[in-house]
Amino acid sequence: MSKWECTACGYIYDPAVGDPDNGIAPGTSFESLPDDWTCPQCGVGKDYFRQIED
Amino acid sequence: MNAVIVGNGLAGTMAAKTIRELDDRASVTVFAAENRPYYPRPNLIEFVAGRLTQEKIYAFPPGWAEKNRIDLRLGTPIRRIRPAENTVEVSDGSIVSYDALLLADGASAGVPPIAGAGKPGVFTIRTLDDALALLDYFQNHRRVAVLGGGLLGLEIARALRAREAEVVVAEIFPSLLPRQLDPQGGEILKARIEAGGIRVLLGVAAEEITGDPEARGIRFKDGTILEADLIILAAGVRPNTELAREAGLTVDKGVVVDDRMTTNAAGIFAAGDGTQHRGRLYGIIPASFAQSRVAAENICGREKIYAGTVPSNQLKVSDLPLMSAGIIRPEGPGFEEIRLVRPEAGVYKKLVLLDGILAGAIWMGVKAGAAEIGKAVAEGRNVAAFKSEILEDGFDFKRL
């Protein structure tokens, strides 16, 4: 599963870590995140993210 | 350091991962009852709905455990813990010793006391095997009844509706999500779910699963019968405490731990859905995650404290965001309720005021303002000055 970077603030979503504080279990792929998931660092939506090599 | 972990759900897996990160030389063995590597449980709903393939359910690529030198024993439950000897007895009869043992065997699906709940065609959803068995049976049994109108019941109902099943949800309470919604909000949610093609029955208590030998329906206490050939019990979960109890550990609702996630037995820790901390049994991802990290740190000899988790008051139900906080069904004099209702959009905003102080709120169908309103309730802010405009869509919450 690949990592995704927030183009607004540089936060990196790592599927191996997930976003547990917001109920996203470790191991959840970026594609499986709910549509209304937002960047935990700056609050923008999923469409601000771009896939990066891991 | 020789760590043994019971369970390979979120807590067990994250603890194993953390121990490896903290101590490169530690020996880490994980015993898993399920014959599957770790997967995030919310993925099961996506799988049932057909939005995620089975291969994509798993969290880590094949070989992840070996690469991290985690001895992962799948399909190998623990039979007994022997605290006096610092050993566990494995289902294959072998005895394994430990320096530190982490109990992370989680929770199981609760089965309500309904006659016939063991019949073929009656399912719970907690594991991937549950989901596979359900989908297999679903091929030839497409009239579905879900017993339980909580979050999981509604999600499962929608997932099977996405596969074009005929779905009925039956809830024992007279309204949906009574802890998060008042009756009017519950009605709006119900209408929304029904618009999605799912029938909702409220205030009905199941007495018996009919059919012989296979399930053919549900008979309710009021005598009515609902025909269905696939029945899902979505009645919450029950912590797995048998191993701990038998080993003489302190067990209340769950396995009791202190702030270091240690049980009353030396060298035995617990974390995750089966764990009770400061009287609380959480059963939510953020808590399991934090607990597993703290347990791993302490197992590795670092002093780390878990102070509890504040559950988020924001959730999602049938695609609608829902925030609810404070007093939502006020009783007694002095309360004032203001509302904005747009049923067709699933929007229901309600504030409960007491002398201008925000005492409670329901914020459904709109995400904007949910966090700010939740915070204002927690802080007991006076919003009397904004009463006429605070429910409007364009309201600038920075003004609060």
Descriptive labels:
heterodimer, A: 54 residues, mainly beta, globular, B: 400 residues, alpha/beta, five-stranded parallel sheet, 26 strands
How would you explain this protein's 3D organization?
The complex is a heterodimer of chains A (54) and B (400). Chain A is 0% helix and 19% strand. Chain A has no helices and three strands. With 400 residues, chain B is an alpha/beta fold. Chain B has nine helices and 26 strands. In chain B, the strands form seven sheets. Chain B has a five-stranded parallel β-sheet. The radius of gyration of chain B is 23 Å and the shape is globular. The N and C termini of chain B lie far apart (53 Å). In chain B, 43% of the residues are buried. The interface between A and B is medium-sized, with 17 and 25 residues.
Topology at a glance:
The complex is a heterodimer of chains A (54) and B (400).
Chain A: E1 3-6, E2 12-13, E3 49-52
Antiparallel strand pairs in A: 1-2, 1-3
Chain B: E1 2-6, H1 10-22, E2 27-31, H2 43-49, H3 64-67, E3 70-73, E4 78-82, E5 87-90, E6 95-97, E7 100-103, E8 107-109, E9 122-123, H4 128-138, E10 143-147, H5 151-161, E11 166-171, H6 183-195, E12 198-202, E13 206-210, E14 217-220, E15 225-227, E16 230-233, E17 237-239, H7 242-246, E18 255-257, E19 268-270, E20 275-277, E21 280-281, H8 285-299, E22 314-317, E23 320-326, E24 335-342, E25 347-354, E26 357-364, H9 370-379
Parallel strand pairs in B: 1-2, 1-7, 2-3, 7-19, 9-16, 10-11, 10-16, 11-12, 18-20
Antiparallel strand pairs in B: 4-5, 5-6, 8-17, 13-14, 14-15, 20-21, 22-23, 23-26, 24-25, 25-26
Helix pairs in contact in B: 1-8, 2-4, 2-5
